[in-house]
Every structure is written in structure tokens, then in C-alpha cells.
Specification:
The complex is a heterodimer.
Chain A (H helix, E strand, L loop, with lengths): L1 H8 L1 H26 L2 E2 L8 E2 L3 H7 L2 H33 L5 H8 L1 H4 L2 H12 L5 H6 L11 H27 L3 H9 L4 H29 L3 H6 L11 H11 L3 H30 L1
Antiparallel strand pairs in A: 1-2
Chain B lengths: L2 H18 L16 E8 L5 H14 L3 E8 L3 H13 L7 E5 L3 H7 L11 H4 L4 H7 E2 L2 E2 L2 E7 L1 E5 H6 L8 H14 L4 E4 L6 H12 L6 E2 L2 E2 L4 H13 L14 H9 L3 E6 L2 H6 L10 E4 L11 E10 L6 H11 L2 H11 L2 E2 L8 H6 L3 H9 L1 E2 L7 H16 L5 H17 L2
Helix pairs in contact in B: 9-10, 9-17, 17-18
Classes of the chains: A mainly alpha, B alpha/beta.
Amino acid sequence: MKRVHRFGERPAVFLAPALAVLALVTLFPILYVLWLSLQRYSLIGGAPEYAALDNYIRLLGDARFWNALGTTLYFTAVSVALEVALGLGIALLLAQAFAGRGAMRAIVLLPWAIPTVVAARMWEWMYNGDFGVINYLLGTEINWLGNPYWAIHAAIAMDVWKATPFAALLLLAGRLSISQDLYQAARLDGAGPWRLFRHITWPLLRPLLFIVLIFRTIDAFRVFDAIYVLTGGGPANTTETLSIYAYKVLFQALEFGYGSALAIVVFVCIAAVTAVYVRLLQRTLS
Amino acid sequence: MHPAKRKTLRRLGAAAAAALLPACRDSAPRAPRGATRTLVFKHSKLFGNPRALAALIAEFEARHPHVRVRTEALPSASDEQHLFYVINLRAGASDFDVLALDVIWIAEFAQAGWIADLTGLLPPAEHGDCFPAALAAARYRGRLYAIPWFVDAGLLYYRKDLLAAHGFAPPRTWDELARIALHLRARIPGVHGFVWQGKQYEGLVCNVLEYLWSAGGDVLRDGQAVLESAENRRALAFVHALVPRGISPELVTTATEETSRHIFGSGRAVFLRNWPYAATLFERPGAPVRGKVGIAALPHFPDQAPAATLGGWHLGINRRARHPEEAAAFVRFMTSPEAQRALAREYGLNPARRPLYADAELLAAQPHLEALRPILDAARPRPVTPRYAQLSQVLQGEFSAVVTGIREPEAALAAAQREIERILGSA
């Protein structure tokens, strides 16, 4: 024990290599982007020029930025809410004993296993207004991805299809880790299904629910590939999220200063949301 | 970027390149006389028999015994090609000499100092041979930075059988097109009127510019934004009404080149705006519209002239090329009439040199070239500015808003004018 104690006296030494790696691959890029966001810098122009907060001031007056922020928030709120609600339902169903449960658990995971770009291409065909299967099934004639109202909802539907399995899987794991004894004891006391859920499942699942929310919110807020493949941000920028806007500014228009400012905004938003979740999670746990 | 950092990055890049490409370690800036020099030619994949390009390169090597040419294909998406060039050229890459350039990148690359001034490479006597729009696209601040290789232009495909059966001549004005489209659509079930590329992407800008120009409008004039004109308003008002009036189906708001080609090619539309590549595909044996497709210049507004957006590829030289003289010889060779004739015959590309459009042998192989020449003569380059990528993003969003009907033409033009003025002002 004494030796272990001696190790404990110098944690910094042992943490140093890991911290150095983290600093190199995480901290340095973030600081570099932060530095870039304070420069006037286009790849086709000359060297970067210090521009103080000019890029951020420009953001405030940029209608396309506010539009992208609104789109991102709407996409995140709606898709994460649906994913967690559906995921919870599916997790509770899959926790029941029924024939073929193992197979069902595997099948439910399929959408999550398909690469996003492939899935997005698939959905693009299904949404096709001319010969898409969705119009065929619904008996409608809507050009889902070309209609400024429907396009963002089409993207949300695809994201829900894709990410619900992730929420379901995590929540299922959480549900299965709850001891059966609790349920049996409650049943003996005469509790019905609703009370079992309300007083056993829900409180014990909440920490995991926060974890799912953190993961899904971060992912949804950064959404890029799914929507980029589906619509490219159109029609009329109605599906342009912050990540897509940042990508276009950085890698098509080559404005590294302004694009970095956009990236920093995404980073700060995600950091803020995560901080709130972590605070709530801690309160739940204590 | 900080100079020291840039140097480090460049070294890293060079190290990576050296590790990946052991074959090109002949990094001495000047090979000794008599030694073999290897030129690297970057281009996008040419669809067709790869032997035709290989044969041309063998011919060049035979004429220049000390030069070897290695071709390297780029990723197929134009955005990715652009990104590849930008990353490599910005880092000072010298591992490729000759590069194929989309017409819209030339001013940007010239401004950045990435491609060599090739003004001396095209003798003034040959300028008349090239389509004026192709030269205009390659000219920046009075100098020529790339040599036209292949050209493209928007044109109108129409169903000559359907038009003839209902007693119509090919439309000359947009109103005539609208009238014919509505007339035929109402009488032939399952057939759309006019299909084109209305998805929010570069293709939409190409389409809408043709309406602006054929109304006498424009985006830039003498380097200034001139979007808020009566001509542009008139043109966009017509575009705005295409879907609501039923001239075009709602699906055009997601259509790209291939989507619209498939609809027209399967016989489900009367008119199509597309690039020349579609012509050959419509005449393939077994194609549903074979022998029924006519080609014409795009319509125009009354008292104006038709206009087509120029597309296509130029050849440029990396300013850090290791073998600039050999690269120049190679560009001369690949853009020569004989090379263009061979590539046009094998790959169906449209030569940038006008005399080839009177070449009997070539016309026999590619009959649609004859109809193409006047269209290419009247083609126009998209705004030639190093900031084109930024301009295009603004136009894509605003034009898409007009096409889908969520913004009035005046509002879209005012917003685009404001944004483009800001972009040009910050240059």
C-alpha cells in the first residue's frame, strides 16, 4: 500500500504524457482556430493581419449567420427530443421478455451502423419528388428536399431514423442494469406499470438520459454530413446549419479568419450546452 | 500564417510527399542536361477510352525524348478538386507541373500567385481561334493565366417531334418557350414543360445568369456590382414564375444536371436546359428520345440576344513547377488543334478552338458540334473575379429563394447587391 501511496504523491508526473498528447491534438487546434478567428485572413490573399474582433462584429450583422444559428437550434431541439423520446420507448420495449428479442435488438441498431453519407444518399432517393418511395407511400406529390418548408423536416426525420438506435441502445443498457429485485419488491407492494416506471425506471435512468442528451445534442449541433449530402444547405439556405456555413466559408470561399470565428461560435455553443447538462447531471447524482 | 509555421508545414508536406511518392525524389530544382525530366499533369478523369489520352502523351514524349509525363487523376467532385489544389498550392507544392482548371478558379489562383502567367504561350494570332468567353475567363488584370482546353455552354434541348406535331417552331424568346411548354403539357399526359437545374448549387448560378444576360442584365460591370437593374428584375420575375405558372415542375428546385437529363431523356419533358454532354447520350442506341431531340441556343427576352454560361477546362502551370519550360511545351501540345481534335473525338469534349468546328472528320464523329459553335461564340464567362466562390455562394442562396418562391426578385437582388458590394469592398 505504501508504494501506491507514493505514486499518489506525484500524479502530475504520470498524467503528463496523456496531458501532453491531449494538448497537442485538442488544445493546440482550438487555440489556433481562436487565433485565426482574430485575423483578417483569406487563403488567396497575403499573410494574416490582426483584426481584433472584426470577424465577430461582422457575425452580429450577418443575416446568413443568424439564419444558420436558428436552423441549427431548431434542428437540434426537434431531432434530439424525438430521438430521446423514441429511444426511451424502444429501450423499454426491448427490455421486455419476448421471443426474438435478441434479433430485434440487433435489427434496431442497423440505421446507426450505416455510414451517414450512404444513408443520406439513400434518403435523398426516397425523398425524390418525382419517383421517391415516400411520396408513393403517402400518396403525396411533395418535393421534400426542394420545398423551403419541408426540407429541414426531411433532414430531421432522417436524423431521427439514424440516431434513435443510439439513444435506444444506451437507455436499454441503463434499463437492464436496474436490479430486478426493485421491480419485484414494488410489485409485491401492489405497484402498477406506471408507478414502476415513475418511481423506479425514471429516477434510475436519469443519469444515463443526461449522457444520451449530451452526446446527441453535441452531435446534432455539429450536424454536417447528413444535411450536406441531402440538400447542400438549400433550398434558399433553409437547411444551412452552422457547420455547413462554416464549411462553405472555410473551404469554398477560403476565408479562414471569418470561417474560424464561425467555428468558435459552434464550439462555444456546444461548450455552454454541455456545461448546463453536466451541472444538471451532477445535481441528479447527488 | 506565421512564416516559421508555414515553413514547418511545408516541410511536413514535403516529407509526406517524399514518403508517399518515392518515384519523384528527383527534387533537384534543375535536372542536369540530358537527364530525363518527369512532368506531372493533374486533371479530372476523362470518361472514355483511357488509351486516347495515353496515345497523345506518348506522342508528346516521342517529340520530347527527355521528358516523361505522368498523369494523376483528381477526385471527381469539382469542390474536392478545388480543395486539393488550394491546399497543395497554398503550401507551395511543386510536385505537379501542369494542372487542369475549371474556368471559375483561374482568377482566384492567379490572384493568389499560384499559377504562372502564360500570356506569352498563346500567340496573338491564335487568339481569334479561341472562343472569346474562354479567353476572358482566363484573363486577370490584363494577363492570360491559362490556355483554353475544352469548353462548355448551356443550351436548349427540345423535342422536335412534339413541337412539329403541334405546329411549333423552336422557341426564340422565353415567352415563346413558356407558351409552348404550357400548351404541350396540357395536351400530353405525363410530360413536364421545361426542366433545368434549380437545386441550390453552382449549377443554379449558371442557369440563372443566362436569364439575366439574355435580358441585358449582369452581376458585375467593370468590377462593380450591378444587380439592382430593371433588366435583372425582369429576368428574375420570369424565373420566379416558372414553377407557379406550371411551365416547370416543382421538382426543378432539387434538380441537377443528371436529374434533369434523366427526366428529359426518358421522354418526360418538352424542354431541357443542360450542357452539351447530354446530346451524345440522347442519341445512344436504344435511348427513348433518340432522333427526337433538337438543339438550339437558349431563348432570350425580346430585343435581346441569347446568352449561355461558359463552362469547361483550361490548362495552367504551377508557378512552382520544377520544369516550367517542359510544362509550357506540354500545355502548348495539349491545347494544339491536333490534340484537341483527338480528345474531342474520343471523349466527346468540345474543343476550345473554333476552326475545329468546321473540321469534316470531327463533325462526322460528333455531329452536334455544328450547332454548338454559334452558341459557344455567344457564351459568357461567369463573373471573372478572385472572389467568385464567395459571390457564387451569395447568388446561390438568393436565386434559390427566388426559384422556390420565398423571396421576391427585388428583395433577392437587393440582398445580393449588398452582400456582393461588401465582398468586393473587402478585397
